[in-house]
Amino acid sequence: MSPLPTRTPALRRRILALTAAATVSALLGGCFADGANEADGGGEGDDRRIRVAMMQPPRSGLSPLSDDAFKLSRWSTAETLVRLDRDGDALPSLATGWRQQGRTWTFTLRQGVTFHDGTPLTAADVVRSLSTAATASPKPRILDGVDLTVRATGPRSVGVTTAAPDPLVPHRLSSPQLSILAAKAYRGRTVDPVGAGTGPFVLVRAQGTASATLDRYDRYWGAKAKAAGIDVRYVPDGTARAAALRSGEADIVEAVPVSQAGLLDPKLVTEVPMPRTNTLYLNTGRGTFRDPALRAAAREAVDTRSLVSGVYEGRADRAGGLLGPALPWAAKLRTPVRHTAATAPKGARITIGTFTDRAELPEVAQLLQQQLRKAGFEVELDVREYAHIEADALAGKFDAFVLSRATVLDSGDPAAYLYSDFAGDGSFNLSQLSDPAVDAALTTAAATATGEARRKAVVAAEAAVLATDAAVPLLHERVIQGDGANVVGAAHDPRERELVTADTHVR
């Protein structure tokens, strides 16, 4: 493999700034030309609209059964029975309460809710939406491996039954992929959310991969939206998104690249710890890192401080474990982990794999290569697009793999991530780990009821994983969001479920 180019953060910023001058005008031409907030035609207060530049265009026509569902929740147009608080605990939304009896959870529906087409929310609507998701092919990710049935138990209550007892049912129902939509959304083979949600904003127009338009819904069951509407444009180029904020063409910009954040007015940039960890997975099943002492040597060789400062320009958090500051309870419950003593590598050869889809990961891999070589390893890199490397990574063909991994999946609970990545039968076990103590801890965590007891079991499972040195946590990423100087109340959500809420407006 040819060596990766070395670029300092300052050099990257200069290159990108020069590139931006030549490309941004073309990328942004007419981006928000029809926006309502231009100096010659904008309103004030309730008449102002919010212009949002989003990173990724829809991949599935804004179907709530796909990852596009997170756009619907970020625009506050589609809602779920349950929502999650900052700690990941379940709170009422379209359901006002719930109770469990055996394998069945019964949810009581909120009164006075209407869909955007004017029809009232009923138990039949909830059954339709959840049953459609449960029988979809493929299922929404939140229901992967879950056998779920739904039935009306009264005019304003539904029963959700799982094949096996599941303490996470309320958390699962908080996933935007299980949004409750009006009957009109389910005509034909696709699910069309236009005019079919219950949130404070109604989706009135979706123009493919170009834009979306939402207006305030005045019959919303909760507090009236403070903005007149939302005008969304999809701007995949990060330099263009940052330029839209600088020029005032966008009020809110999601996913500002690390390389661009330093070029913006610091007052316009908000960084929020994200439940996503960059981890060096070490292959415990074959090769050099079958030896626990060499895994320990690799862990001791890693300098996370230089990764955060050199690659992420200080816009990330050094990892103290697999679970980062987006889950503040984890650090409070964590205790020191006992590791195997390290042994000298003495030229042991390893290959580290990673992918180019996340721009920072090849640079992370390059710095790790330097650190591990200094410790005495012989290190090669294998860097490809993710689609061309995933199969080899899952098959255990690398000695180590660098991955940016979400640590809470759609349920808001990290037990599922820990199980998939580190259980002997885990579906994403890059470390090829098969350890009875780890498996026992993971099984206990998965079966424990939600609350403090489950959190303690999750942290105990994390400790069991870390004790094997099958994974070396590197850093926790941050959401970098740009908000215009006149924006009030934009959500800064580490789970990226919220962005524009009923309280968000432009002064």
Automatic annotation (TrEMBL):
Ranges of residues in domain Solute-binding protein family: 92-426
PROSITE patterns membership: PROKAR_LIPOPROTEIN, TAT
Key words of the record: Signal
Residue stretches spanning the membrane: none
Domain of life: Bacteria
Record carries keyword Signal: yes
Signal peptide per UniProt: 1-33
Name this protein carries in UniProt: ABC transporter substrate-binding protein
Organism phylogeny: Bacteria, Bacillati, Actinomycetota, Actinomycetes, Kitasatosporales
